[in-house]
Structure formats: C-alpha cells, structure tokens
Amino acid sequence: MRTPLRQKTGGLATLLCLSALLLQPASARAAVWYTGEFSADIIITDPGAPDNKVRGTFYVGKDRFRAEGNHQGKQKALIVHPQERKVWMLFPEEKSFYAGPGGAPVPPKPDIDRLPGDADAPCKQDKAIVCTRLGTETLNGIETEKWEVKITPPAPPPGQPAVPEQMAQKVTVWADPVRHIVIRQQPEVGPSTERVLTATEKVADRVTEKWAISLTLPDGQGGKTQKFVRWVDSKLRVPVREETEGKVAMELVNIQEKAQPASLFEVPKDYREISAPPAPGGVGREPPNAAEMPPPAAPAQPAQPGKLNYH
After folding, report:
1. How far apart are the first and last CA of the chain?
2. How big is the chain by its Cα radius of gyration, in Å?
C-alpha cells in the first residue's frame, strides 16, 4: 500500500541539509548561502502519484530562513539560524514551539558549492582533508578546475593502531569556478555524479539554466544510472523545478525578491516552549550539536520526493 506523501515526504535530496549547513564554520557559510532575500511557495509531488502533493512557503533572509506548511494535519513552521546553529519548530495554531528540527517543506539548497580552491574550503580548515589541483579541463563545454580530494579517517584513540594509508578516501572533482558548482564528482568508491547544461529557459517568467544530472552507481552496486533534470534560477541560484523520468517532482512558484521582515525568523514572545517529541528509543530530540555532526555531505542528489521523510 502506498504511504501518503504527507507521511513520507518532507523535502528533497536537493533541500538544504540541516546537519551539513549547521556544521559550516562561520567563514564558509557565505559560500553556500542564497544570493539574495526572497520568498516562494514550494510544491513537492510524488512522481508515482501526481495528485499526491505537499505544499509549503519559505522565506530566505540574509543569513536565516523560515519554512512553513501543513504536516500530518498540523500547521508548522521551521526557523533556522545557521550561523548560531539554532533551530526551532513552531506550531502557530497552538502558539507553542520547541528547540530542534521537525517536519516542514524546506527550501531547496542553493545551487552553490564550496569548492576545493576556495579560501574557506574544507581542506584549508581540516588537516584530514587534502586538496590537490590537477589542472584545468573543458567538461561538457564548461571550463573546469580538476581536483583530487583526499579524506583521511579520524585518528584512533591513544594506544590504538594508526589508520592505514589505504583507508583514505579519494574523490576527483571537476569544479566550475564561475558558477561555483561541481560539474562532476568521481569517488574511488561510491556513486559518481555529473551535470550537463542543456539550455537556458524561462520558467514562470524567471530566467533559468536547465541541467541534466546523472547519478551512477559503481559496478559492484549494479552500475545503474539515475537521471534528473533541474532548472536553476540564474539570479538567485536556487532550483525552481525538478523532474525525474519526465515527471515533475518539485516546483517553486510565486517567487518574490524582497527583504524579509526580521520578525519572520524569531519565535513570537507569546509562544510557550514545549518538550521536543521523543526520538526513536524514547530519548527527546535535542538541538543540533555541531561537534557531534558528520562532515558536510557531498553535493546533493536531485529530488526524490517519494523516498524522503520529514524527520
């Protein structure tokens, strides 16, 4: 039996990943934030059931965002302050909130990546990550910088054997320094990703770049390739439409470029704080702790709304 979309879908693989975003050091956040303030409505569709949709609205400020919508019959709003690593889940109908993430259709991640050559690149801040420039290469008609990124696992506790050299992971990255995006990523182990610019088109009166994106699994994992199409707003650098197998998975509509009121990103004073819902195992959800978070994720895959959850 098909699970209702409202229960199993709360975002996209292209959505702003809270754990990755909150982990960014202060000097790095500017590289992955949106290029301007705006608001928009988001529509997420299950490609297998086109009538099954999730709708929401989000507001992007200079360094924070708010996303709101109806989830499991309740109106909810999510407020995120990345620089302060703060997240709140609000329930407007009850005038209550708790500290921590929750269910709400959140904005797509800006189509901007931290590149190996950036002054605030991970390899400039973490000795376990080494970036080596291999030169330049024209890839799919785009001039790119080619890099090798070597990631060494964390050192073991004192008294434990050292990490063998062969345990290090290597990833080859082709980066577009103009658009500030990764065009191709090829790890030694794991799926590779690639994107090809196919056209410049208007979507809802917005000028966009149309990208064909592929995700290929290694031969040992079947070697299959998933293909997606993404339209990126040329000015805001945010995905405004995504399709998988010719079916719409996500759309941004009613985009309004303007400064957002500061009050949108604050918990109203008349809201009462409640306990966060229990996580699996009965432990209450705590606000994100950057020290315990994993490293920033690799460039996100395109939308797969039928396979994602709110929490």
Report:
1. 21
2. 20
